[in-house]
Every structure is written in C-alpha cells, then in structure tokens.
Amino acid sequence: MIIGHLPAGYVVSRIVFPRYEARGVAWKPFLWAGLLGSLAPDFDMLYFHLVDHRRHHHHTYWSHFPIVWACLLALSTVWLYAARVKNRAALAFLFSLNGFIHLILDSIVGDIWWFAPFGSRPFAFFTVAARYKPWWLNFIFHWSFALEIAIILWAAWLWRCNRNLTHLKPSLSSYPQAGCVDANGEMD
Fold first, then answer.
1. Residue 48 confidence (pLDDT)
2. Could you write out the DSSP letters of every residue in 10-49?
3. Angle at 106 between CA 101 and CA 157, to 5 degrees
C-alpha cells in the first residue's frame, strides 16, 4: 500500500466516531488520532533512510511488528472500557486500531512479519512482480492499486458528505456511518 493508508484512516475514523461522539469525544482530535495511527507504522521510514541507509526492509523494524500493534490495541481497549472519561482512551484506541489496520493493508502485497520477533517468515497475500524501474511503478501497475484508489474514493465520498451536511446537521452521527444523506434525510 503506497497512498491508501491515510484515506483508510479517515474512513475508519468516520465509521468508528459515532460510537464515541455521544460520550463527549470531539471530532477533530479523534480524526487526528486516527490519521496519525494510520501512518504511524511508516514513521520507521526516517530510520530506514537516515540511519539504516536502506539495508533492511523497513517492515522488519519493530514499528511494523503486529504484536506491537496488537498489544497497543489490547491495552487501549482495556483503558477504554475501564475509563470513566473516554476522551483520551478513545483516541488511543483509534490510534492503535488504525496502526493495526495499516499492517493488514500492507499484507495485501507487501511482506509483513506477522510472527515477529518470534518468527522470521514474511507474509503477503499477493506478490508484485518486479518488472519496472523505478520500483514503485510495479505497485502502480498492479491490480491491487485499484484497491487503493477505491479507498481514496470512499474517503473522498465520506468527506464530501460531511461537507454537504455540516450546515444542516452538526453531528456526524446524524446520518448513516457509511452513507450520505441529502437535505431531506434521503440517502444520496
């Protein structure tokens, strides 16, 4: 996944938000936590380029270990259910959820070491053949890039729906989570 992580983080944030809005969680911090979480595993790219000088696949760093994100997700879930005030716990939960989803999306055509650090075998659902230079053209010309475009279109559609409705209904949960309604409350 090259360009789909951030839009996927937006989609997940929009779908999950109505559950926490009623508990007083504000949309902007919630969205920022979701977007940050959707990109967080790739923060290792700084180390990859500046320190490691691209000697090791960046998916072999701890920030791409599923056990790290599973533990963060489990801890934030416990915190969320135990907390009386849900604001920060909801942000941590969404951050962790989107970080974990990042790894699932990477697993479509990119190697993820799902049993790291206990196992050293990578896993990807599909393989992208190296036919073109530069390397990223191989991903753009692969069928899986259509999935990224679909995620981007979904996020754009949800964003458009939100922009069209903010003057009518200030609450995101006032309309279907994955759908769009017009001024009359009809599905768009």
1. 78
2. HHHHHHHHHHHHTTT--HHHHHHHHHHHHHGGGGHHHHHH
3. 60
C-alpha distances in Å from residue 135, one per residue of 1, 6, 115, 127, 131:
13, 21, 26, 13, 8
Lookup: tokens for 45: 């790219």
Closest C-alpha to 177, from 153, 156, 161:
161
Q: Which amino acid is at 52?
A: D
Domains of the chain, residue spans: 5-174
Q: What is the pLDDT of residues 94-120, one digit of tens each?
A: 999 999 999 999 999 999 999 999 998
SS3 content of the chain, % helix, strand, coil (to 5): 60, 0, 40
Query: Global pTM?
Result: 0.85
The closest alpha carbon to 99, from 126, 125, 56, 65, belongs to 65
Q: What is the dihedral of CA 103, 106, 112, 115, to 10 degrees?
A: 30
In the numeric block, the tokens 């007083």 are attached to 24
pLDDT tens, residue by residue, 126-179: 999 999 999 889 999 999 999 999 999 999 999 998 776 554 445 555 444 555
Encoding tokens for residue 172?
């995101």
